[in-house]
Protein 1
Amino acid sequence: MGRVTNFNPLCVLLPLFIVLAATATAQANLFLPRPRIGYYGSACWNVESIVRSVVRSNYFANPANAPGILRMHFHDCFVRGCDGSVLLDGPNSERTAIPNLSLRGFNVIEEAKTQLEIACPRTVSCADILALAARDFVVLTGGPWWAVPLGRLDGRVSLASDVDLPGPTDSVAVQKQRFAAKNLNTQDLVVLAAGHTIGTAGCGVFRNRFFNYNNTGSPDPTINPSFVPQIQAQCPLNGNAAARVALDTGSEGQFDTSYLNNLRFGRGVLESDQVLWTNPETRPIVERLLGLRFPFLLFGSEFARSMYKMSLIEVKTGLDGEIRRVCSAVN
């Protein structure tokens, strides 16, 4: 007589159930909204701490990385959306466009990416790293913290010909049009421009405004006369066009409302900044941020809110993008 073996169906069904449950969970995650807060979960639980550590070391090594990365994030989001396309290297990439030639901090993003590829291979996008790094650099300069939604994918296209960014001589009307095209309103425009509180600009970008405004042979009349010789000394007419000047005189590198107060007294370095005070539509917003007009606006809170909105511009999801292994090149 053959041997009888007791068969327990749970031995087959339990492992099968576990596999099916795991598969269902993974598929369900595909349909959850992205980007979102806490997107990576257990797949890369320490993503934010890794980026924050890299940001801290690079900030203390060179504080200029703070405005550099904040500007890079802005330039990324305003061209093809927040997809890390500005990070791609190549002969005709966005990095080669004139407004992007002075971008700095690419090494910071690559360093964070290298560490994340060790901790969580092929999981975290370069676009997400840039968004997190921008937030963390702002915090180190005394600015606000905000929750960054994650789950962006990296774009595969980066063309210099696509780069059409707000310019240093833009009127308020032109700036409003450019921001509205990205679903950002006039208050977002003023608040995000105030990120220049930690920014700098090359002399070649604005020098004519202090010497020969619109070929008049004189400085822009909206500039405070006492401010003109100060900038002229920093940016001589025949001096180095690449020399950089703080956009927030007297409070360089500190996230505060000093930049806005400088506009109030005609000490804006860029024409596109100073018009925010002279224009009747944007001036009340500046006044509210300075506590000069009711209802008041808290600059830190409003900056965080506008940065959150900006970070969601035209994000890539699904088949639109990828998770790059190296931030400077597509897979």
Protein 2
Amino acid sequence: MTPSDRRAVDDVHRLRLAAQAADTPHLPPPCPADLEGSLAVPPPATAIEEWAAYSADRTCVASVRLEFPLEENDNAVTAAVFLVHPAFRRRGVGTRAAEFVRDRATAHGRSRILLAADAGPGDRSAPPAQRCFAQALGARPLATFPHLRLLVDAAPRTEPVPEPLRLRFWGSTVPEDLVAQAARLEATLSADAPTGRLEWAPQPSAVARIRDFERMRIARGRRAYQCGIIDARSGRMAAWTALSMTRANPDNALQAVTVVDPAYRGRRLGLLVKQHNLAACRAAERGLAQVDTWNSAENAHMLRINAAFGFTHAGTRSMWELAVHPPSDAGRPDVALDR
């Protein structure tokens, strides 16, 4: 599926809206610009395949997005989207789609298939129906990521940063004089973040990764608000954070990266940089009401920081690993997947 496939793009967007309303009404609805941009520009060092499944009467019944890492973690494929239209569930469509994902993983020489499932605040793991489906497919649970939400009116007020530190703000593109430091900090964050059973290798320090991510974000119509804390003595970036927003959801922001240089930790800089960045974002985005973020359940440090900032539990994202070879053969319903 490509951006020029207008019918397929529209069909998939409508399917994702229906699935969001049925499964995850606590999350912001999918953004059409985000979908179109994701077809045009992949994540850094990643190949993508976007598939739509149609029934015999050409009704779109499932949406599958596969992401194939090209450098580190190149033994895996992530089904970043794996959705069956609510009106077509319990008809074997999901089983057929899982078989198709296994076929694509095998074709790319991948030995691991990762799936994600979101649950609302009333369930601390995947919903029972999703758990049963994953288990029937032979998937095993790997990790959980608590979904945290901040109501911005409950956010703490900004506090001054200590001398000789300075604040610096920018938008969707990291300034050229800071991008190498941003790459260094992002690699530090990737290496330090606990992965548990995910067994996910950290990304390298690379300016190209930062720039490729920015191109992807801009292609998706997203806008970012970013803040760094700079040591005036050395010019070193001690902390960095980012918020991102889609075109379709002016009331919601995603809390993305927050990282503090190891040499500056223990000074509350993570809290301070988030305070000032949120204040700048709120000043520009008058409709902003809430901020969402996800942290590994094993990342106790970041969970404490976000709790102190005012984030509260809003749901859970579960990661599963699907067996490349199914536990048993299953029937194939009459559906076809179109790329």
